[in-house]
Design a protein that fits this description.
- The complex is a heterodimer.
- The N terminus and C terminus of chain A are likely disordered.
- In chain A, helix 4 links the parallel strand 2 and strand 3.
- Chain A contains 15 helices and 14 strands.
- By secondary structure, chain A is an alpha/beta fold.
- Chain B has 18 helices and 20 strands.
- Chain B is globular, with a radius of gyration of 23 Å.
- By secondary structure, chain B is of the alpha+beta class.
- In chain B, a hairpin with a 2-residue loop joins strand 18 and strand 19.
- Among the domains of chain B are: 157 residues, Sulfite Reductase Hemoprotein, domain 1, CATH 3.30.413.10; 137 residues, Sulfite Reductase Hemoprotein, domain 1 (2-Layer Sandwich), CATH 3.30.413.
- Classes of the chains: A alpha/beta, B alpha+beta.
- Chains A and B meet through helix 12, helix 13 and helix 15 of A and helix 1, helix 2, helix 6 and helix 9 of B.
Chain lengths: 428, 551
């Protein structure tokens, strides 16, 4: 499960404008890049938008769309001085093929080069700074003149881009347009074929994402197309994509307080079982059910507080008589769509009337938390940031009316009248 | 029919608000497609070949006029002016925009409708006989209990992430028009020796890649224990159904691999633990819900219609009377099937205008009520015999008067490769070609009762396994190839059709069907012997020869 939602920092700009942009994202079929582009160029920001193209392996698709909408749209190319000769030739090829009439070459400030990269090897020692002086600086100077810009970014390219929408509002209140957001590798190639677009000369040689020559390597079959960029360095995006939208955020979740109980996140006193632990002496550890059954005496002889881990496929019946010996029972949801834990939880809570902490571990997401609660789960180990936020703020959108009575703690208030009556009769 | 009380209305309102929030989070990019998928599916929203597809529940196939008018409105405002009725008695819209979904759901909620659990690995819309509450041969109207099951299964917290989807069908009488033996659970009304109505419970039926006829798990479960018994089945399935392979995850595989006897024991053990608890259904509640489905105030009339005479005067009307009426329990009334299978049309499609025309007819002639059939037609359940002519004339006007119910051109057809992302071949164009080939009314009449069912892939949404003649579209080396099966039957004489040999190219299919038909007509004992009976008597050989010669 991705932490990708965090890439969207809380908006600081005008809320109405933000909502307008959000609404735009629902207006176009996911694959209709031309319509997105036309909306941006003709309607949203006429005369006030430009495109930056790397003239790389996939650039022809977006440029073809640009040519369809407006051949005179400013197309910026960052001549970093580090490009492959093939890329420079390809700029001319596409220009002629598509009839683009407004390609503008941007070069780094010679003073910056002289000062920071006199030997031309900055890419090796500090690639971030190299990108900065060669791409971010020249582009920033130019782009401040526009209300928005068009990018060729695609969701599939890197995991951080998994939630890329068609339209984004940047932190400085400009609009970034991503017509190809939903295009897959296959879509891009199909588009190239369908429109007879000339290939980048290096594409056939195995380059799938082409940037400056020193920082681009060949991508192996099946590898992430951008894996060839900055290979071996912990760097995924160049500065020009990095500086908007509050940057690529790190997970907010802290490791210390990830147990949600009684309305707040607290430090978890328990730890997971790990290989090599001693059943007779571990403390505050969730012991897997299977191990417990095989070593029942040793575990029951352990004087410390411990928990039990119940995984899908486990028969909780087999440990029913001993549940009261555990301070916590963890029901594992290895994937949010594996619903076995709901049955397990109901059996533990309702049939065996377990009174201790019943927690959900694994893929615990906000949309399933209300169901888990109804099945008797009282605590949640949460790593998914949006879920964490929702729990902290108490804002879980859910349905609070129940047709069916479930759970012992859930007096079926809100259930159908006949079920409420029946439940009252039973408890009397 | 059932009317929402405040509780139901508030429930759907909250659910709509919840899903609107999820849609907005998706549009804002706060949740990714993987996280959104199960949420949208549980609200009936699929991502299809061209666009989103919204599937709206028509609980147990019953609609009021105002509901059908709202569906027409949605078709016109948010879609391309038509909707598609499905084999699950639901309706699908093929072209809505994601951003419009919250508004569509709010519109639906205003007429007590929703899209909850029309997809996803949860308990789906409960289907019944389209003539429920009207049929002359019925023991009990299954819809009150179906409504109670709808409520019990709505957002059930334990059963929202089952191994796979779960479908329940109910039949209120011995003649099974709801294909209950091909559902995960089938319920057949049955009277015990004290005269009390309960349910025979069948489990583990299904079509798809692995067609299976359901096994009987319980001969008789009275209403009061039905919820607890079904919850026991679902719990056993949720815990032990396979999750390692989505093609083996339906309960039919669990029943098949574990054996019905062991499953029966496990369900019985679970039932012992929860029986007589909160799920015990009081008769008062069955009666309370039942009151919503009370028979309308029928007039005491005894009109009849002389079909033979009408046919002489106007053959098309006579044909329609002959084919599209079903016997009503009330003398002087009939149930009218409105065929959505015009010659050469897309089976199950209705335009907004047609929906409105049908809504008007239901309001005027059928106590405001209408039905969706699992064979993708509509039904006016309670029409006075003396009104039939007016109804027919109005249907002619709306281009809905095809008199082919149950005939060769009344085919079940999945959307196929024209819409569906899973399909491997086209199905609608095949149905259209067959429909054109057999368009002549005399020819259809000569053939008589015959069910052709067409699926565009092995998932079998077009029920080809249970077609008297089934057609399965596959893809072989980039070319569509159609397998033909014979002998399937979805009724109480349930059987799965057999393939007799190699498949056919798309353009060869109509001729192949014609050879089967010619063989049947040549070999039947009397003109009254239906295709399926003749097939049973004759066996495969003559039909195999018709398809492949005797080489």
């Amino acid at each position: 499960m991705a932490m990708a939602s965090l890439a969207f920092a809380p908006p600081k700009h005008d809320k109405l404008r933000a909502l307008g942009i959000m609404a735009l994202n629902g207006m176009f079929d996911e694959m209709d890049g031309v319509a997105v582009l036309r909306q941006a160029v003709a309607d949203l920001l006429p005369g006030d938008i430009a495109i930056v193209s790397s003239f790389g392996a996939d650039s022809s698709v977006l440029l073809h769309m640009v040519a369809e909408v407006d051949r005179a749209l400013p197309v910026y190319f960052l001549e970093t001085g580090k490009h492959f000769a093939e890329t420079l030739a390809y700029v001319e090829t596409l220009k002629a093929h598509l009839g683009l009439s407004n390609i503008r070459w941007l070069r780094p400030d010679p003073k910056d080069i002289a000062r920071f990269d006199p030997r031309g090897d900055l890419w090796e020692t500090d690639p971030d700074s190299c990108c900065h002086i060669r791409k971010t600086e020249p582009l920033d100077a130019e782009l401040t003149g526009y209300g928005g810009w068009i990018t060729g970014r695609k969701r599939y390219q890197t995991s951080e881009r998994g939630v890329l929408p068609h339209f984004e509002l940047t932190s400085d209140d400009r609009i970034k347009v991503n017509p190809l957001a939903y295009f897959s590798d296959t879509d891009v190639n199909a588009y190239k074929v369908a429109h007879g677009l000339p290939e980048h000369p290096l594409f056939a040689k195995g380059y799938k994402s082409i940037g400056c020559a020193p920082c681009t390597t060949i991508v192996a079959e099946g590898e992430d197309p951008r894996a060839g960029r900055w290979r071996g360095l912990n760097k995924k995006e160049c500065g020009i994509h990095f500086d908007f939208n509050g940057a690529i955020a790190k997970p907010v979740a802290t490791v210390e307080k990830n147990l949600f109980r009684d309305g707040a996140f607290i430090a978890d006193p328990f730890r997971a079982w790990s290989e090599g632990d001693d059943l007779a002496s571990v403390r505050y550890t969730h012991i897997p059910l299977k191990l417990f059954l095989e070593n029942r005496d040793a575990v029951l002889g352990n004087p410390h507080p411990n928990g039990l881990l119940v995984s899908p496929g486990d028969r909780i019946e087999d440990a029913a008589a001993d549940l009261g010996r555990f301070a916590s029972i963890a029901v594992s949801f290895p994937g949010f769509n594996d619903g076995r834990g709901y049955s397990t939880a109901r059996l533990i809570a309702e049939r065996y009337r377990y009174q201790g902490e019943l927690r959900a571990v694994g893929d615990v997401l906000m949309d399933q938390v209300p169901l888990m609660r109804r099945c008797g789960i009282t605590a949640f180990v949460v790593t998914h940031a949006a879920t964490r936020k929702a729990l902290e703020s108490g804002h879980l959108t859910t349905v609070n009316l129940f047709y069916q009575p479930v759970g012992v703690t859930e007096v079926p208030v809100g259930t159908r009248p006949f079920l409420r009556r029946a439940a009252e009769a039973e408890t009397v | 029919m059932y009317r929402y009380d405040e509780f139901d209305a508030a429930f759907v309102r909250e659910r709509t608000a919840q899903f609107s929030d999820q849609v907005n989070r998706r549009l804002a990019g706060e949740i990714n497609e993987d996280q959104f998928r199960p949420l949208r599916l549980m609200n009936g929203l699929y991502l299809q070949l061209h666009a989103y597809m919204l599937r709206i529940a028509v609980p147990y196939g019953t609609l009021a006029s105002r509901q059908l008018r709202m569906l027409a409105h949605i078709a016109r405002k948010y879609d391309r002016g038509y909707g598609h009725f499905t084999t699950r008695q639901n309706i699908q819209f093929n072209w809505p925009k994601l951003r419009d979904i919250p508004e569509i759901l709010a519109d639906l909620a205003s007429v007590e409708m929703h899209a909850i659990q029309t997809s996803g690995n949860c308990i789906r819309n409960i289907t019944t006989d389209q003539f429920a509450g009207a049929a002359a041969d019925e023991i009990v109207d299954p819809r009150p209990v179906a409504e109670i099951l709808r409520q019990w299964s709505s957002l059930h917290p334990e059963f929202s992430y089952l191994p796979r989807k779960f479908k329940i069908a109910m039949s209120g009488g011995p003649h099974d028009r709801a294909a209950i033996r091909f559902h995960d659970i089938g319920l057949q009304a049955k009277v015990d020796d004290r005269g009390i109505v309960g349910w025979e419970v069948w489990v583990g039926g299904g079509l798809g890649r692995t067609p299976m006829i359901a096994k009987r798990i319980n001969e008789y479960v009275p209403n009061e224990h039905l919820l607890a018994y079904l919850e026991s089945i679902l719990r056993v399935y949720n815990r032990y159904g396979r999750r390692d392979n989505k093609y083996k995850a339906r309960i039919k595989i669990l029943v098949h691999e574990t054996g019905i006897d062991k499953i029966r024991d496990e369900v019985a053990e679970e039932f012992r633990a929860i029986a007589n608890g909160v799920l015990t259904l009081p008769q008062a509640e069955v009666d309370r819900i039942g009151a919503y489905f009370a028979a309308p105030e029928f007039e005491r009339v005894n009109a009849t219609v002389d079909v033979a005479k009408e046919r002489i005067a106007e053959p098309a009307y006579g044909e329609w009377l002959d084919r599209n009426l079903h016997p009503h329990r009330q003398p002087g009334y009939a149930s009218v099937t409105i065929s959505l299978k015009p010659i050469g049309g897309a089976p199950g499609d209705a335009t907004a205008e047609q929906m409105e025309a049908v809504a008007d007819l239901a309001e005027r002639y059928s106590f405001d009520e209408l039905r969706v059939t699992h064979e993708q037609n509509l039904v006016l359940p309670h029409v006075r015999v003396s009104d039939l002519r007016e109804v027919y004339d109005a249907l002619v006007e709306a281009r809905l008067a095809t008199g082919n119910a149950g005939l060769i051109t009344d085919m079940i057809t999945c959307p196929g490769m024209d819409f569906c992302a899973l399909a491997t071949a086209r199905s609608i164009p095949i149905a259209q070609e067959i429909s054109r080939k057999f368009s002549a009314p005399e020819r259809q009449k000569e053939i008589g009762d015959l069910k052709i069912k067409i699926s565009g892939c092995i998932n079998a949404c077009g029920h080809h396994h249970v077609g008297h003649i089934g057609i399965l579209g596959l893809e072989k080396k980039g070319v569509e190839n159609y397998q033909i099966t014979i002998g399937g039957n979805a009724t109480e004489d349930a059987s799965v059709g057999d393939t007799l040999g190699h498949g056919f190219a798309a353009e060869e299919v109509p001729d192949a069907i014609e050879r089967l038909i010619d063989t049947y007509i040549a070999r039947r004992e009397t003109p009254d012997e239906p295709f399926i009976a003749a097939f049973k008597r004759l066996g495969e050989a003559p039909f195999k020869e018709a398809l492949y010669g005797n080489g």
